[in-house]
Design goal:
heterodimer, A: mainly alpha, two-stranded antiparallel sheet, 76% helix, B: alpha/beta, six-stranded mixed β-sheet, 49% helix
């Protein structure tokens, strides 16, 4: 679908620049190197460009997925404007951006710094590596498997969480977390933080290893606290990695589908509905393929804008 | 070296272009001469199900009658077929006969687009129109708009299904409860269970179950005409009428009284089935399709079924259909195969494995649970009491009803829920033209 296109989109400018460099070497060289772009161009066209164009076209039609499409102009987009479920799903997307990008990046920075500065130095680098692997583990699990297991843990009647709470005498805290519209989204967010945390930790720890220890030591001699050193000395040095983590996690959160599919199906009611799942429902169960395409197109635009904004910010800081 | 890599690159591109061209040229074309001896059958009922057992027998019977014909069977998934129906049925690689979901949004849609073969002449020739009673024919016939209930035959089902109450006989005995035959008796039984701290009914709000409770409650006050209007757009539908208003009120009342657990709102059907199998809930109201599963899974208590008390109308219909794609290469063989699925030996296998055979005969059925299941169906079919399913009227009603019943369970206003259903229903019906 269209959203696959988006993750790849930022790569395109780089490819353009490579072409420009080769061209400067002379016409014969340029021709030879351009040939190497053909397979990628063909694949890009077939896998990304054509489906994207078809998706945008379909969003201007009414279509059940079978038979001819009827041109509908902007009707699907007009319907989107007045669709409370769509707007609810957009707000939930923001919550998922917090759960998959902002919170994991902030927490990940703290955890990475703690592992790098404290655990590795006071215990041993091996302990730090082991803990890093533990935090990263959820990222290795297939999303559907992890989501189904969380579904079991959170089962209101027999789930491990509620049973454990009852067993230790905290039964009053036992709650149908995924069934209550007031807690469902927060619960999904908590699970997503658990899942996502390992990714920034790994990236940030790698980043910390390339920072100049002399700067931190100088700040320490000057009397800077750990918090000041982290915020004023370390963070500016690993800013490129922070941008990469925020960009990739934000894009991933806007495309979050598997978790919703396996944990809540967007419910109860529409309290955990997100655009990607709503688009899927419109496509395949509601047989409103044009409407589903319109949702996908809107998400495509949003993800493109977010990506461009992040890349612009990153380049500005790099410059 | 550069020349060699350029050569390899060109070769790779030619291969890629070739394979792409092959993908694009799969349209049209009938069966080749070699395929005239092959019957391609597709279905998506899982291994071990009553349907698979019975239909394998139909394949064996077919092979005996057609010694020169090879049967190629493929197990598909419904999603796989629904999501690619148009592409599959327009290609040359179509099956000769395939299982497909009954209803307007599935078989109705394909028939409207001309992707299926009109089976009306065969229905008369093979006598399918006599074997299937009027209630069961509804899901086999579709009009030019793809609306079920009239017009041509586009599919044939060899089994039926309906909603029934599964009950735990041991728990009923423990609390001294008789099988209820009226709603008052059922209510008294539920009160007894709740007083003892037992939630009477298993339920799944994040699946088809909760909406089926709601629908059975609606049917308790609905007329057959209202059902026809709702399912087949034969007249206006008012969701604020007495039947629907009573249904949402009763449903919320049941949640409040604990007849159905409020915290079943996020559960799936599998979890609810589990709750019944483990004896957590003494009753489960759901489809006859559970019978086979319970027969093999439940070992530590005895159980039975009874009809939802007090209803003359009850959710149920013919089962999924065997349809013949328009481009099928061997239609005559396909008709013979469909007819084989209706033969007594196949029907008996369905019955003995916990399904309801379309002929609904109990002859040769050994398990008393299956006899009971079939007899209850006979009662419903005999009084024209089959009222289909709540999510059929529009393609998005399944998702909508699921979300709305979840809201009801979480205390939403019944009036608001009915208004939402009304506006979505009206919008769809007006789009039909």
């Amino acid at each position: 679908m269209a959203d696959t296109a988006l993750a790849k989109a930022p790569v395109a400018p780089r490819r353009g620049r490579a072409g420009a460099e080769t061209r400067s070497r002379g016409p014969r060289g340029a021709g030879a190197y351009l040939t190497y772009l053909v397979p990628a161009t063909v694949l890009f066209t077939v896998v990304i460009a054509v489906p994207l164009v078809m998706n945008v076209y379909t969003s201007f039609t009414r279509w059940t997925g079978v038979g001819p499409r009827q041109w509908a102009g902007l009707a699907n987009y007009r319907q989107l404007l007045h669709d409370s479920e769509f707007w609810a799903s957009m707000w939930h997307s923001l919550a998922l951006v917090a759960a998959m990008a902002v919170i994991p990046a902030a927490l990940g920075l703290l955890v990475a710094a703690a592992l790098f500065d404290v655990i590795a130095k006071r215990f041993s680098p091996r302990v730090a590596s082991l803990l890093r692997a533990c935090v990263y583990l959820p990222q290795v699990l297939p999303i559907i498997v992890a989501a189904i297991v969380w579904g079991w843990i959170l089962d209101p009647q027999h789930g491990a969480l509620n049973v454990a709470l009852r067993d230790v005498g905290l039964g009053f805290l036992a709650h149908d977390l995924l069934g209550d519209p007031h807690t469902a989204l927060l619960t999904v967010m908590a699970v997503l933080v658990w899942f996502q945390l390992g990714y920034p930790v790994v990236i940030f720890m790698a980043a910390l290893q390339r920072t100049d220890p002399a700067l931190g030591e100088a700040a320490e001699i000057d009397g800077a606290t750990w918090r000041q050193r982290l915020w004023l000395v370390t963070v500016p040095q690993i800013r490129p990695e922070i941008y990469v983590v925020l960009l990739t996690c934000t894009v991933a959160s806007l495309r979050a589908f598997g978790w919703i599919y396996a944990l809540t199906s967007g419910g109860p009611g529409v309290s955990t509905q997100v655009p990607s799942y709503y688009s899927y429902q419109s496509f395949f169960t509601n047989l409103e393929v044009g409407y589903g395409s319109a949702i996908a197109t809107v998400m495509t635009l949003i993800i493109l804008l977010v990506s461009v904004a992040f890349l612009w910010l990153q380049r500005r800081h790099a410059g | 070296m550069p020349r060699k890599s350029a050569g390899l690159l060109i070769a790779a591109l030619v291969a890629l272009a070739g394979s792409l061209a092959a993908c694009g040229s799969s349209g049209g074309g009938g069966g080749s001469s070699s395929s005239s001896k092959v019957l391609k059958v597709w279905w998506y009922e899982g291994p071990g199900s009553a349907y698979q057992i019975a239909w394998n027998q139909a394949i064996a019977d077919f092979k005996k009658q057609h010694p020169g014909v090879t049967v190629q069977f493929s197990l598909k998934s419904f999603n796989q077929m629904q999501q690619n129906a148009s592409m599959i049925l327009n290609s040359s690689d179509v099956p000769d006969v395939m299982e497909y979901n009954k209803g307007d949004a599935t078989t109705g849609l394909l028939s409207k687009q001309g992707l299926l073969t009109d089976l009306t002449p065969e229905a008369a020739k093979y006598g399918w129109d006599k074997l299937l009673g009027p209630d069961l024919q509804v899901t086999a016939r579709y009009d030019s708009k793809g609306v079920m209930g009239s017009g041509s035959w586009y599919g044939v089902s060899d089994y039926a299904e309906y909603l029934t109450v599964y009950y735990n006989k041991d728990m009923f005995a423990k609390y001294g409860i008789q099988v209820p035959t009226t709603m008052a008796q059922l209510t008294a039984a539920m009160d007894k269970f709740t007083k003892a701290g037992v939630t009477p009914f298993a339920n799944a709000g994040n699946d088809y179950m909760a909406m089926q409770y709601l629908y059975q409650m609606e049917l308790s006050q609905a007329t057959p005409q209202q059902v026809q209007n709702y399912e087949r757009y034969t007249g206006s539908v008012d969701f604020h009428d007495a039947a629907w208003t009573n249904a949402v009120k009763t449903f919320q009342d049941w949640i409040k009284k604990g007849y159905i657990a409020k915290n079943s709102v996020g559960l799936t059907a599998t979890q609810a089935g589990n709750d019944f199998e483990t004896g957590k809930n003494p009753m489960l109201m759901s489809g006859s399709w559970w019978a086979g599963t319970f027969e093999s899974d439940i070992k530590n208590f005895s159980w039975g079924t009874f009809l939802w008390p007090g209803n003359t109308l009850n959710a149920g219909s013919g089962g999924n259909l065997f349809v013949v794609p328009k481009n099928a290469a061997n239609k005559e063989l396909a008709y013979d195969f469909i007819n084989d699925t209706l033969k007594p030996d196949v029907q008996k296998l369905l019955a003995n494995n916990g399904a309801v055979p379309i002929a609904a005969s109990t002859d040769g059925v050994t398990n008393p649970l299956n006899v009971q299941l079939i007899q209850n169906f006979q009662t419903l079919a005999g009084s024209n009491g089959l009222a289909y399913y709540p999510d059929w009227p529009t393609p998005n009603f399944y998702n909508l009803l699921l979300a709305q019943t979840q809201d009801l369970m979480n205390g939403a206003s019944g009036d608001q829920v009915l208004s939402t259903l009304q506006s979505n229903y009206d919008q769809y019906v007006s789009s039909l033209g």
